[in-house]
């Protein structure tokens, strides 16, 4: 026997077995990378972090699956026995499998690195762009994937079937994390203190590096044992029975003739008893995930540190359990080869389908009901303060069930299409998350209604039900694959249909009207100043001018400087410059803070009207807000007009408040009245900003890819910021003219004092056509500001929609206020004259 | 005396709930075709798994080709060709690829022999295993087991799935192998086929070897007597020594008795016994002998012994507590 030939033959065989898994995972990685690269610019930071862990997760998935492919699959298919009958040393078989598995892991890492570089993801990863899982550097992940590879081989050799082997990987894989956290808790900082990230990284790396040879030794030993003669059962005495015997099924003589009245129940019983330990393991994982979800949605103080990691791991394992319950449906006793037993006996495919899915569905329904009942029992977080501590917002029962159904549905579909358990067990979680991401994107980005999304969720179930007959008979011919491909196409196309219809229906501006408005816009552009001033929060500097921010700062100096700040001065909250002729650019965050402090000072003055200091503080804020509103009206940015509206709403509410009636004659209040009463000036400013922003956006978008414009690089950053992102691109690409035209019509109607309801409804249809009722939308009556106890700060949420507050009740109040001032002009004219 | 190719000593295998083998002693000499017969669950596959080094026995020992299969499994497997009752091959490989792959573990010449065998069976080398019929897979498995010309060929239901022509051809090749000094150890239910090729027969029942003799000796040692009595209540007379009654069946006044070590000269002695009207004697086929050995009650120590069915009286190693088997030899064939 030629030793070289032995190695060559074994390496060839193992490589041929592992290559499909590598290719499949690399293909999925490529798809995920492509999706990430197309969408990452539009996503918020937390979703970007999720994208950045994809290249870390895929090699880990491979590492966990390699043992299942190279060992468990051989055991299940029976080729293991034939291989063992050949005169090949056990060490050669074990070493070859480990070496080829390791080679595949290296390939996965190389492939993911190349894909990361191609899509530009490596910058995010190398910059530490991500929380949670991505907090460790890539070398630690590489070490951990090698450790998981050995875990996978160990569990595969120790278990007869792939499913329990895969389940056992989970606790072993998180062991280094647990040891790391425990060691940090033991010797690290106390409660409430930050953990040194570098120290944590080194500790995790060291623990994983130590664990690799240990687990490798276990894996090799398990492999050698698996290829050794099987030990005989150790029986002490024939008559002595173990305690487990009491739990065995009754002897045949005691069995009833027909255990269940319904044959579907028999099939469900079979699903549970196929592998009871696997069932128990999956149900336990799901229960833990449900509990973690309840903790995350109800924790008052937030979950972070060790508890955050535990909650994250349990949530992940819960989702994995849902997916594997789906995989469970058509593997093991649900595999085509075993279902043929039922097919030969004429059992209806629909009943078998129900029986196979019955167990998983009932478990998921129980979990959903548990979550729902718990939420009803505990109630929702009551106040904003409590919301701050909540990791995830609660979801409705329908949403929870839909998410469960999607993950389970895609997974059971995958297990029917990819019959190899070792492959489908890893492909299904990835594909189900991909499907979930796709439908969430459709809902969030395009505003596709929940009804359409639920129809999509049903498609995987319809597909497996439809093809069940062919699957059971073992005849997966062209009809089977045609149905599967068509169902996949429908799954992808269904969410796109309502969006496509709405896009086709989107109106556009006529060429004649375009020419007129374009000329007017260009005229405004020529006359407008292109220079503008950005507002900022304060001039406060903690560090010296010549000091870098990461240099150490003396604690006493820092405290003194912080104490020197005057928190009741507008200079600590909103800086707008002194030039009243230069347009101002809005900052929602700065304005919101300024309005909150101004409201506080107003209350302080109301409590003590004789306090001159309180009055002076309040005066300075009113003056600053008045000047800010004037500056914003000069701007040719649409969003600045929306922010000016919010400031004027606050001024109008303040001026109309009877508690400050004594101050109305003060000059700063008269100036404020002067600003809010200027009805025509406000409409001119709105029209000018609308047209100039429209023109500027068209000019900026020329020669740019549409994505650049969607990302908001134009001068009109805030346009439609809260409109679903996909729909926003539709508006900017083809419907902008219609929006502008409708807004202009709104201004004209409002100027003439005509009802504006039709124009508001028109804008709602344009900007929210795929979802939401008018009454509860941004243009609905409940969101249009009247003078009253409403919270003005909430109106900032609608600033990205044009004209939500135009001609709302506050404008009528402001107008009436100006009439009131004219009627009292006898008293005020002398003051004005005096002031002049 | 040549060394035995297979030898076992007090081999016992106990599983939870059943005893698969009970103190089995067996010697198989080289150059023989040894057929192991037994009903389902008799312990045949367990014995083969121990002989091929897949299973440790509860007690006892075994040697195959002078090697211990538990401690030297590789030495055993290099010298043995083994085909299980349901050979599972890598179905993603082609017929040629699996030969190339398996050749890696055997000396030169394996691949050549394999390809010749495949050619003889008319199976295209480029065809995937997964598209082969059951019979074609069996042929591939046999070709793989034979290509290195093993000293010992162990076959578990070897002809399952083969068509009659190939089956006949294959069985004849087994005789050729034995003639060339190689040994074949086969387990089968196809008794008519076994009868055609086997030198030595072992009958395994309930984990014990009921009989282990050359085919001719086994067939010659068993006789069916039909004794007509004048009264159905009269007991049968004692049989002359060394004849032993193995099984008796009542049919009115007729008794059918299966007798071991019966000689034609004993008929007159029986006819002279009181109550005996007539005695007829008939040679038994192997199938009848097998059924006789494995029929319920036959050799079962737990069943109450009948008046003429005391196995201990026979003094023969036919399934008693020791389970010893007669040494088989191919010379009588």
From TrEMBL, chain A:
Task: Identify the keywords attached in UniProt to this record, alphabetized.
Answer: Membrane, Transmembrane, Transmembrane helix
Quote any Pfam family the record assigns: ABC2_membrane_4
The transmembrane residues are 18-38, 50-72, 93-118, 138-157, 166-186, 201-220, 277-296, 308-332, 353-378, 390-410, 417-440, 446-466, 478-501
Claim: DNA-binding is one of the keywords in the record: no
Which top-rank group of organisms is this from?
Bacteria
The molecule here is called ABC-2 family transporter protein
Annotated source species: Aporhodopirellula rubra
From TrEMBL, chain B:
Q: Keywords, A to Z? A: ATP-binding, Nucleotide-binding
Pfam families to which the protein is assigned, alphabetical: ABC_tran
UniProt GO molecular function = ATP binding; ATP hydrolysis activity
Q: Taxonomically, which superkingdom?
A: Bacteria
Q: Where is this region: Disordered?
A: 296-333
Q: Where is the ABC transporter domain?
A: 6-231
Name by which UniProt lists this protein: ABC-2 type transport system ATP-binding protein
């Amino acid at each position: 026997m030629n030793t070289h030939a032995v190695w060559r033959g074994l390496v060839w065989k193992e490589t041929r077995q592992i290559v499909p898994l590598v290719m499949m995972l690399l293909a999925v990685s490529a798809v995920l990378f492509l999706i990430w690269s197309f969408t990452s610019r539009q996503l918020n930071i937390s979703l970007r972090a999720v994208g950045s862990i994809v290249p870390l997760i895929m090699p880990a998935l491979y590492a966990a699956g390699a043992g299942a492919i190279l060992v468990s699959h051989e055991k299940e298919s029976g080729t293991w026995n034939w291989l063992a009958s050949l005169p090949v040393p056990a060490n050669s078989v074990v070493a070859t499998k480990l070496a080829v598995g390791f080679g595949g892991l290296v390939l996965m890492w190389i492939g993911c690195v190349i894909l990361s570089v191609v899509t530009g993801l490596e910058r995010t990863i190398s910059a530490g762009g991500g929380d949670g899982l991505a907090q460790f550097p890539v070398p630690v992940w590489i070490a951990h994937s090698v450790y998981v590879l050995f875990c996978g081989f160990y569990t595969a050799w120790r278990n007869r079937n792939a499913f329990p082997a895969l389940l056992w990987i989970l606790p072993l894989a998180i062991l280094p994390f647990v040891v790391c956290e425990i060691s940090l808790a033991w010797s690290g900082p106390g409660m409430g203190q930050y953990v040194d990230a570098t120290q944590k990284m080194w500790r995790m790396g060291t623990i994983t590096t130590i664990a690799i040879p240990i687990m490798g030794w276990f894996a090799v030993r398990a492999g050698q044992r698996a290829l050794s003669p099987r030990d005989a059962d150790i029986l002490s005495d024939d008559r002595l029975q173990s305690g487990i015997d009491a739990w065995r099924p009754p002897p045949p003589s005691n069995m009833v003739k027909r255990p269940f009245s319904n044959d579907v129940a028999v099939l469900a019983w079979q699903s549970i008893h196929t592998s009871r330990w696997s069932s128990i393991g999956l149900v336990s994982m799901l229960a833990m995930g449900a509990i973690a979800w309840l903790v995350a949605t109800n924790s008052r103080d937030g979950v972070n540190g060790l508890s955050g990691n535990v909650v994250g791991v349990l949530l992940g394992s819960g989702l994995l359990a849902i997916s594997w319950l789906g995989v469970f449906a058509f593997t093991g006793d649900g595999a085509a080869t075993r279902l043929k037993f039922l097919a030969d006996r004429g059992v209806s495919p629909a009943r078998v389908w129900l029986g196979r899915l019955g167990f998983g569905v009932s478990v998921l329904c129980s979990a959903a009901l548990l979550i729902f009942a718990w939420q009803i029992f505990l109630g929702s977080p009551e106040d904003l303060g409590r919301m701050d501590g909540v990791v995830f917002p609660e979801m409705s029962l329908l949403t929870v069930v839909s998410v469960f159904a999607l993950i389970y549905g895609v997974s059971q579909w995958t297990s029917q299409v990819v019959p190899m358990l070792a492959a489908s067990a890893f492909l299904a979680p990835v594909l189900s998350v991909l499907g979930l991401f796709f439908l969430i994107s459709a809902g969030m980005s395009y505003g596709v209604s929940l009804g359409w999304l639920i129809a999509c969720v049903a498609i995987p179930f319809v597909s497996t039900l439809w093809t069940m007959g062919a699957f059971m008979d073992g005849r997966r011919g062209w009809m089977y694959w045609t149905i599967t491909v068509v169902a996949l196409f429908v799954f992808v196309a269904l969410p796109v249909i309502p969006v496509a219809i709405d896009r086709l229906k989107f109106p556009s501006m006529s060429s004649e009207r375009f020419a007129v408005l374009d000329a007017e816009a260009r005229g405004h552009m020529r006359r407008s100043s292109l220079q503008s001033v950005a507002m900022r929060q304060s001039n406060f500097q903690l560090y010296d001018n010549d000091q870098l921010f990461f240099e150490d700062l003396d604690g006493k100096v820092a405290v003194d400087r912080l104490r020197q700040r005057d928190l009741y001065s507008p200079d600590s909250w909103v800086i707008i410059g002194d030039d009243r002729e230069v347009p101002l650019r809005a900052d929602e965050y700065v304005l919101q803070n300024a309005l909150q402090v101004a409201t506080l000072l107003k209350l302080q003055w109301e409590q003590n009207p004789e306090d001159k200091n309180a009055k002076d503080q309040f005066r300075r804020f009113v003056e600053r807000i008045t000047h800010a509103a004037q500056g914003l009206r000069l701007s040719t940015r649409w969003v600045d007009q929306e922010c000016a509206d919010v400031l004027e709403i606050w001024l109008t509410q303040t001026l109309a408040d009877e508690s400050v009636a004594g101050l109305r004659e003060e000059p700063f209040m008269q100036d404020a009245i002067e600003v809010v009463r200027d009805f025509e000036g406000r409409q001119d400013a709105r029209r000018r900003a609308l047209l100039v922003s429209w023109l500027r956006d068209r000019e900026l978008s020329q020669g740019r890819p549409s994505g650049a414009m969607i990302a908001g690089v134009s001068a009109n950053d805030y346009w439609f910021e809260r409109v679903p992102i996909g729909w926003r691109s539709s508006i900017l690409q083809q419907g902008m003219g219609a929006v502008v035209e409708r807004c202009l019509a709104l201004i004209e109607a409002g100027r003439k004092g005509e009802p504006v309801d039709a124009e508001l409804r028109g804008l709602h249809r344009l900007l929210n056509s795929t979802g939401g009722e008018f009454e509860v939308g941004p243009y609905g009556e409940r969101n249009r500001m009247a003078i009253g106890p409403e919270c003005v700060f909430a109106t900032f949420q609608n600033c990205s929609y044009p004209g939500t507050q135009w001609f709302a009740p506050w404008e009528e109040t402001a107008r009436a206020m100006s009439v009131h001032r004219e009627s009292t002009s006898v008293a005020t004219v002398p003051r004005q004259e005096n002031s002049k | 005396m040549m060394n035995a190719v297979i030898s076992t000593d007090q081999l016992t295998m106990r599983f939870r709930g059943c005893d698969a083998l009970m103190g089995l002693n067996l010697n198989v000499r080289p150059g023989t075709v040894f057929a192991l017969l037994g009903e389902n669950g008799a312990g045949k596959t367990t014995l083969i798994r121990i002989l091929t080094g897949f299973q440790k026995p509860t007690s006892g020992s075994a040697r195959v080709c002078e090697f211990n299969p538990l401690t030297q499994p590789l030495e055993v497997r290099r010298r043995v060709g083994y085909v299980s009752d349901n050979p599972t091959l890598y179905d993603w490989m082609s017929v040629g690829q699996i030969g190339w792959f398996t050749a890696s573990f055997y000396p030169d010449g394996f691949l050549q022999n394999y390809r010749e065998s495949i050619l003889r069976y008319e199976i295209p080398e480029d065809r995937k295993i997964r598209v082969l019929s059951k019979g074609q897979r069996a042929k591939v498995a046999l070709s793989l087991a034979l290509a290195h010309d093993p000293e010992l060929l162990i076959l578990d239901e070897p002809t399952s799935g083969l068509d009659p022509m190939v089956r006949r051809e294959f069985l004849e090749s087994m005789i050729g192998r034995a003639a060339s000094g190689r040994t074949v150890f086969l387990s089968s239910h196809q008794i008519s086929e076994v009868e055609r090729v086997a030198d030595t027969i072992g009958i395994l029942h309930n984990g014990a070897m009921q009989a282990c003799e050359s085919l001719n000796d086994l067939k010659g040692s068993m006789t069916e007597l039909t004794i007509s009595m004048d009264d159905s209540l009269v007991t049968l007379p004692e049989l002359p020594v060394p004849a032993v009654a193995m099984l008796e069946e009542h049919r009115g006044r007729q008794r059918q008795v299966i007798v071991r070590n019966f000689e034609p000269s004993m008929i007159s002695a029986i006819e002279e016994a009181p109550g005996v009207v007539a005695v007829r004697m008939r040679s038994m086929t192997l199938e009848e002998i097998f059924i006789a050995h494995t029929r319920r009650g036959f050799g079962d120590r737990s069943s109450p012994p009948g008046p003429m069915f005391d196995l201990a009286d026979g003094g023969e190693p036919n399934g008693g507590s020791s389970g010893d088997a007669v040494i088989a030899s191919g010379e009588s064939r």
